Amino acid sequence: MTEIPRVPDFLLGIISLRGIIVPVVDLRRRLNLGVVVADDRARILVCEEKDRIVGLLVDNITQVIHLGADEIEPPPAILTGLNRELVEGVGRIKGQMVILLDLPQVLDMEMHGTEERSGAWERKY
Going by C-beta distance under 8 Å and a sequence separation of 6 or more, which residues neighbour residue 40? Predict the structure, then answer.
């Protein structure tokens, strides 16, 4: 991973994936949950949001699930402000709840309260 100067602390740097430059975000740090421990279970989850691609560094991946629109509930009313904006909804699968993040909001640098932005981040990938 190549570091980029003067970017928010959750933007770890960039990687090249099949010739495409992909910025990598520490999802734990972005959500104010600490820092991902980069052990052998940590993964970079590559996501496409509109016309950009981003990697999310996560603790681990246990499974991939598919939820239909009818299986997604709105975010709980107890969430307010920044916390609510980051959550798209809550899904239920096999008796367990899954929090669905709003990817565009998670990737919004300005929402994090920083004014530092990377020119590389603003370009379309």
Answer: none
